[in-house]
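Quick note —
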Amino acid sequence: MNNASIARNAADAAQGKHAIEMIGVSKWYGEFQSLRDINLTVSRGERVVVCGPSGSGKSTMIRCINRLEEHQKGQIFVDGIELTDALEDIVKIRHRVGMVFQQFNLFPHLSILENCMLAPVTAKGVSRQEAEETAMRYLKRVKIPEQAYKYPSQLSGGQQQRVAIARALCMEPDIMLFDEPTSALDPEMVKEVLDTMVLLAGDGMTMICVTHEMGFARQVADRVIFMDAGQIVESSPPADFFANPQHERAKAFLGQILS
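Predicted structure written out below.
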């Protein structure tokens, strides 16, 4: 990307023309470079699946979008807000970006309802009544309202991950990030979580999902991104990616994961 293109993209990003804009983003852990000159634009309502081998930088990339990881080079814009060291902007972005992790990270001493209410009450200052109404609405959305007064240990792994999704939605974000949300689940529990994510996609939520679930990518994604060695090496619609991958590393990856 030349300097004129970088300047143009930064200007567009600052005006909030895209949900997410990453321009020349790089990250190091000591001497190891985890991300190498990442350029990525995600439109509002777009659903992007990120795949690639372990250690390719997938999780690091999406964790940079809400400052769970700090990039050392380049620019990241979320809804027109540049992600810098400014705490005020980080807070604004985290209110707009929900994230679901591999592990459920639910508070074991709180009920499911209380887990979902906690962030809206403490981070956004909404009343407990409003937070409870919102929590029940999203527990119904992920099809487990009957679990509201139970504790995490009383739920299956698939149910706990659906609670984690509902909890993120309770902040009413514009963008959802998923970091391999089914990788910690037993195979029989994967489908219920993926079905929940398919419902969200149908609602028009902007989504970036790191996953090896290629069936989900075929069904839901507007675009599939393949990463290797900290770089985006391929980006294309699912039909093109699965039928005719262009990069040799992508061909090898699909050959292994689809065999």
